[in-house]
Amino acid sequence: MKRGLIAWDRTQLPPSVFDSRLARARAALAVRNLPALLVYTDVWRSNQARFLTNFMPYWNRSLVVIPLDTPPVLLCALSPRVYPWIKSVTIFEDIRPASKLTATLDQLCEDRGWSGLGVLDLPKLPVEIHSSLRGRAIVDVPSAGITDPDDAEFAMRRRAAALARKALEKGAAEIGQFERQLRHLGAEDLVIRVRSRGSDAYSVSVALEYCGHWVKVTRAYGPANEVVMLERRFHAALADGGGYRENLAGPQPYEPGTGPIFALHVEHQGLYYGDTCAGSQPL
Amino acid sequence: MTDAINEHRRRQLMDLMAERHWDSILLYGHGWRKDYFRSLVNVNYSGPHAAAHLSRSGEISVIVADPWDRELISEVTGAPVVFDPDFAHALPRASAIAGLELMEARFVHGAPASATADIEELRRIKTPDEIECLKQAAVLADRGYRYFADVARVGMKEYELVAEVEGFLKSNGAEDNFMLIASGGTEVVGMKPPTARAFQPGDSITTELTPQVNGYYAQICRTLVLGEPSKGQREAFAIFSEAQQAAEDLIRPGIRASDAARAQNDVFRKYGYGDYTGSKYTRVRGHCLGLFPDETPHILEDVDYVIKENMVLIAHPNTYLPLSGYMVFGDSLLVTASGNVRLNTTEKKLFVKDAE
Questions:
Q1: What is the pTM of this model?
Q2: Rounded distance between C-alpha atoms, residue A119 and residue B199, angstroms
């Protein structure tokens, strides 16, 4: 759950970044002759809305609407009491209460005279939202080409990966110590796992969200020769496409697959090593 | 709960399948909502998706989307576990799905019935094992709040306090924690994730602290003032305390969720603050607890649900008041045959800490 620092440092992530990202979404709309793009977001599935608007809900769910020629609108299931905070960390100026998401969406469409909508990655919508849109003129708009990482995305993920690597450099620590250290460094969300191989060695995996940007880093602690072997395996797998790859650019924090940004993991005799990579290099 | 596969729940689900004429049921979870899956297979998976399939004859199989989860669930339960990066491909068809509404549309084959409401109702009544987990979580919530109050100080930033408390809870056995925080004075209208705001003398620091132990969440809500509380803060707390006590005095089997909400709101009305009991200033007057930190039914005046023995819920009259800004106060309560017992033991008071 997101309960760490959610902040927007505009020196790290300038507002102009979002202008160019929204331009990509609008170009996709123009090609399809659509008036607006709908993006679903909730606590867990927040990467796409975050990429386009810097909004990442800490609770509940929302719909982002990106019109072709006017500023984006947030249909928000959170209380209006937190809208000033949302405005302080996102690009939104227009936030509308929406305890009933699709009813509020219908009203917006009627007000704007929209007869149809594009939906980002329609097959990945939650069933409840997907079924409530049935009967409306909606078109699937695949995220490829819209949410592909740009230089700013790579830079933020590198910051996140550096935090995770720094925490893991020190080796032996219990989960609470990792949690404390990483949240002090600004981690918004964390999934930390420890996997022991008997009494002689163990692996620690840190999936970390920093300002909405997920990375995953795994390190092994045990006999030095085995750790060196793991590192070699990792680089070999990176070069030849082997190992276990998790997609870190998708709508979830991490899911199996490959993408422009991915986490690669290798295993050797019960020990694991991994890092977040782009192309043929760790970020 | 000692057994990762919940035998009591398995029997309940088999009865449900027979009653509904379902051949099989799937319990789905993702990274945010693990509760449907864990209501049958209580293992804290950490991949993006997991599903437990129960046949009418009572056989359980598990599908996961992360290789570490396969090893973990297989070791702990002995049930067959399939790992497939293509989760949609690996999912079996089922007559009904709990958590259906959360699933990505591409995962759903055919037209299964939703078992979500049935499972939620089954989960509301806790077994002795579940109650033991909730008691342990409440103990940890008390310890966590004590730590919270110990480490909070003027100049500390909100997220730094959260980092300290999260570290403490994880070091002491919490699987997860749900936590909101706010700090400041009468300008504070609600809670949210922590910011980089530094605590000031006179601040109210509010928190909902909700550690998870063996899958089960218990919650405590308290307000801490840095320095001598103002007259407004003391007056406000007296109202919150009276409202929470009114609910605690009332809650027993047979009353309605709406009664518990009305008992709290009537205290605010008595003091002329009825306007602050609505959705403009507050969300709910409490909620149930269990495998999810915000289970239904919510405690609201328009929720017509009869409270039953062995439910666990929190009554919290958390809201904004112009006297103090947003304030919180509440404890986890176990509904007994004749009333309820508090699971938290933290002192029921407005916490005060020297601002020096």
A1: 0.96
A2: 42
